[in-house]
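Hey team,

Sharing the Tr-type G domain-containing protein run so nobody has to redo it. Sequence (471 residues) first:
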Amino acid sequence: MGMKDEVHGRSQPGQAEPKVKNKEVVALEDAEAQEEMETNKKRHLNVVFIGHVDAGKSTTGGQILFLSGQVDDRTIQKYEKEAKDKSRESWYMAYVMDTNEEERVKGKTVEVGRAHFETETTRFTILDAPGHKSYVPNMISGASQADIGVLVISARKGEFETGYERGGQTREHVQLAKTLGVAKLLVVVNKMDDPTVNWSKERYDEIESKMTPFLKSSGYNVKKDVQFLPISGLLGSNMKTRVDKSICSWWNGPCLFEALDCIEVPLRDPKGPFRMPILDKFKDMGTVVMGKVESGSVCEGDSLLVMPNKAQVKVVAVYCDENKVRCAGPGENLRVRLSGIEEEDILSGFVLSSVVKPIPAVTEFTAQLQILELLENAIFTAGYKAVLHVHSVVEECEIVELLQQIDPKTRKPMKKKVLFVKNGAVVVCRVQVNNSICVEKFSDFPQLGRFTLRTEGKTIAVGKVTDLPVA
Ligand code: GTP
Ligand code: MG
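Structure output:
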């Protein structure tokens, strides 16, 4: 869901590599497995690119791949020609990430693009989310796999303003990212080269000063977890190397690569019970499932359960990025080949889970919700229906009971009985779904216990699972 083929190093336009390599290659790679385990010792970070439509997320992502040597000059020249033929001259860098025809014609990302690059110290997985409001569910799926976010903001006259207005995706993406567990944000003020900006310090300061209170109110600790920097994604300025003083005299801070290199990796426990929400699956010499490990480790030969249907499976092979590995730990994006289950018996949203401590499967749970913005005239009360997004699950749900309202200031439960709430309220309620889903308490596994509720294409609430029925 919401994921297209990965962008691999030096691949030709429109020619995605097979998702899993064929048998011969695998046999060869076995001998190299040891060496690959060594490379995997480099720390790994999942970075989601978020922000309003046309802010320059795909362009910046494409430029990163070009500057880090993942895409060569010839490919870029081809894209330049293709973009010109489509009357989208300035979109050629975005074509590195936007690989679908629809995306290239319209100049808009639809599905989350995925790519890899490395610096001296870190292996990065880039997740390039769409900015258009129609594709927020895809953005949610991208952000839920990320450790950190790069929030791309256009400094071009009028564009920052549109993105930041009510209903602009700059706001919605920040709020979603925070709820979905994106702990840190690099805010890149992009298009600094644009003639309406021309590396103006005033414009940069204006954007930083307007964004800061909003980021604070969305729950980010601006001093510790947020960093601003100016770039031109299109020209590649202040990205791999610091911007030249002749272009921007006032910037004394880091460039994008330096900032990415300095971000601390969140602590993860490789010994926790294994949890990998399944994003996608396909047939290839057995059943292959894709997803990000949220807890624990997995090794070739392990016995696991596919939840919620409790199917016993065996791990035949593990692939990390493009490489076959023996074991992989939390935070990694994997493809896992399984025996003991048919591809048809798996749905995205299922979770590959440890046998000893399987993930709970429930049709009801208690949650604390924060109501963001209800549709006009709507009231939030028992009987309210919405679409629940939790890790890779998308499922219709109903609020069956409002339990208590929380005072947002004191964070304490309010005494009077609550029958309905309005925008901005924090409320504890019981949520029901038709089909069994796998969730955890937020306090145990934050990534598997935080969710969003959406109605008619709008995010109306964010929440966390506070209690599960006793099994
Ligand atoms: P969606 O995927 O639709 O959300 O857009 P996006 O954020 O990925 O934007 P994209 O990279 O497709 O770029 C949109 C337009 O902005 C293109 O015309 C780019 O050439 C232009 N653009 C992106 N970065 C820069 C920049 O640094 N400077 C200038 N001048 N234009 C830029
Ligand atoms: Mg894009």
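The first strand starts at residue 3 and ends at 7.

Ping me if you want the raw files.
A.
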